Amino acid sequence: MLTAVRARCPDDRGFIAAIEQHRADEEKHYRMFRRWFERQGRMPLAVDRGYGHIDHFIAFAFRVPIEGLDTGAIVADPAAFERLCRVIALTEQRGLAQVEVLRANAIVNGDPVMRRIFAVIHADEPRHFLPYIDWLGRQRLPLALRRERWADWCIHKLLMLWKLPLLFLNPWARRLEAWPDAADAASAAG
User: Fold this and answer.
1) How many CA atoms lie within 13 A of 54 on its CB side?
2) Is the pLDDT of residue 184 over 80?
3) Which three-class secondary structure state does DSSP give residue 180?
4) How far is CA 178 from CA 43, 174, 183, in A?
5) Three-state secondary structure call for residue 176
6) Planar angle of CA 130, 131, 132, nearest 5 degrees
7) Which whole number is the average pLDDT over 71-76?
8) Which residues of 10-24 are buried (b: 16+ CB within 10 A; e: fewer)?
9) Any idea what the Cα angle at residue 43 is, between residues 94 and 116, rounded to 5°?
10) How far apart are CA 100 and CA 132, in angstroms?
11) 15 and 86 in contact (C-beta within 8 Å)?
12) HEC per residue, 12-43
């Protein structure tokens, strides 16, 4: 998204800076969870893109998997760029709602480190969707189309009522064998 925003809105330094901050926040969140798992002495469950809200939403909105998004085509097509902004805003708003649910969970509250992680994420989440909402508003574009809200709701229900319960109830669910950025760390060291 950062590449698309830089190309589509090169003079909008505030928007670009907000997307850069979002990226930095996501890295920070990953590092916090990674440290938590390392202290636990275990790896997270191995999941594929079928468990990601944004992955499903991108497939719905663009008819390609997230890896198949063509940044050049999105930059060249104002409607596609607007759609991507709406999808990200809706996904991040859904993320904030889920963080609020987790912050009320007794298991999360019973772990002081996890409670702190979710407090940090809760503080960061609004700045992940507000820049997109602001940009759409400044362009006088809709913040969400009815079909996008419907897709968001359906994806959420699919994940919460079907996929995630089956994952967590599966005693044979695999765990990651290496961290996703392990190859990056190895190449940086070598």
Assistant:
1) 14
2) no
3) coil
4) 8, 12, 9
5) coil
6) 90
7) 90
8) eebeebbebbeebee
9) 50
10) 21
11) no
12) CHHHHHHHHHHHHHHHHHHHHHHHHHHHHCCC
Question: How much is the pTM?
Answer: 0.89
Burial (CB count within 10 angstroms: exposed 0-12, middle 13-18, buried 19+), residue 72: exposed
- Cα torsion angle, 144, 88, 1, 116, sign: positive
Residue identified by tokens 């298991």 is: 107
Q: Angle 24-29-32 (CA atoms, 0-180°, nearest 5)?
A: 125
Please name the residue that has the structure tokens 């990953």.
Answer: 30
Residue showing tokens 């992955």? 55
H-helix or E-strand spanning residue 112: helix 112-124
Banded model confidence at residue 185, pLDDT cuts 50, 70, 90: low
**Separation between Cα atoms, residue 16 and residue 158, nearest integer Å:** 33
Residue pair 66/58 in contact by the 8 Å Cβ criterion: yes
CA distance 89 to 138: 15
Backbone angles phi, psi at 131, to 5 degrees: -60, -35
- Report the first-to-last Cα separation within the chain, whole angstroms: 29
